[in-house]
Amino acid sequence: MRPGTPGPLIRGLATFVAFVALLAAVRGAAAQSLAVPPNGIVCTTSADDSFALTATDGYISLPDGNSVYMWSFASGTGPFQHPGPVICVDQGDTVTITLSNTLSQPVSLIFPGQSDVLANGVPSQPQFSGATLTSLAPAAPTGGSVTYQFVANEPGTYLYESGTNPGVQVQMGLFGAIVVRPAGHPDWVYADASTAFDPAHEYLMLLSEIDPYLHMALERGQSYDMGQYRPRYFLINGRSFPDTIAPNGAAWLPDQPYGALAHIYPYDPVTNPLPALVRYVGVGSADFPFHPHGNHSRVVGRDGRPLRGDGGEDLSYEKFSLPIGPGQTWDVTFSWHDAENFSPSNPIPVTVPNQQNLFAGAYWSGSPYLGGTGTLPVGGEGYNQCGEYYHVAHNHALTQITSWGLTMSGMMTYTRIDPPEPNSCP
Fold first, then answer.
1. pTM of this prediction?
2. Distance between CA atoms of 172 and 256, rounded to whole angstroms?
3. Residue 172 in contact with residue 57, Cβ under 8 Å?
4. Among 63, 106, 196, 334, which residue is least crowded by beta carbons within 10 Å?
5. What would the pLDDT profile of 85-127 be if each residue is shown by its tens digit?
6. Rounded CA gap, 208 and 236, in Å?
């Protein structure tokens, strides 16, 4: 990993190259032959609800041209990936997770929100150094293993992470997400029909951060003063913008398999009545006030529990910005409504300035109307495919939409809204 701050020329060149590659990938995503969908949640499942994770190390790529040494959980004996696999199970399943450890430090797993967790068949026990709690039941360094087991009693979104020296090991990348679906209803968030969503539009936003000096110290086998901890990279699903809007399994991000582009259609009471779902997971050291533009979100649950009163009353609520705290999960639904019904027959009551006086973004279609296209200004290339809209979704703490000082990077992505189906969108 490069220990110094990138120079402006290197940063600019790296961003340009990454952005060009990204735009080409987005345009050709429909033509890619992937084992996973181009966007949306990518579940790791098992017929017998048994999973294997391997604590290992590797590197990830970032938009400023840097690469950073990471720890993470691989799936079984598979290659390094960051973040760890998204484990999806059903309510009532007995989940078995065997952790193998290839790292030089002991590693354990904790499962916030799950009860009665067993480690090698007995309750997972705390480990102490004197009076200081240092770990739960760990896998020994360089070859140790532990098998954990619990019953997934409550549907919702959960975190799994290292329970050994978590201030260091979680920040190094030892974390992932667990999704528990209601029994018999994979299209509900919780065991309640009011939380129904469209399973074709389910997304995960796992929000994290990196202090590259911590990672460099551990790569070199050196100590690090956590009093000096300062995040400089901010990620969604292990990527920073613009890589966040690349498809799942993008070829140039072999160790960062999960994209963060939400791809939806306008609400329609007949053809598209159900909302999309975003599962937010926070593993940073501070709140991440995340905001998707273009709509409010409805918070239906937090930390794996539905927002219901003691009498069953609905306590869900709409939120403009979602302050995702350390270790928290939020389950949020949203729909995009064409509230003003803008179309050429119901025109926007604004005189558009001369095109030559405008700066057009790469994703503008040349028309202000969904599904419309028009003439683009001279001097740029457009990547809009069918008159779709793009709304940015980003962290409202502006210092966290950076990559080591490179602005308009970090914790950002897009929501893509296609014209109503059927259409010619790829």
1. 0.90
2. 15
3. no
4. 196
5. 999 999 999 999 999 999 999 999 999 999 999 999 998 888 7
6. 7
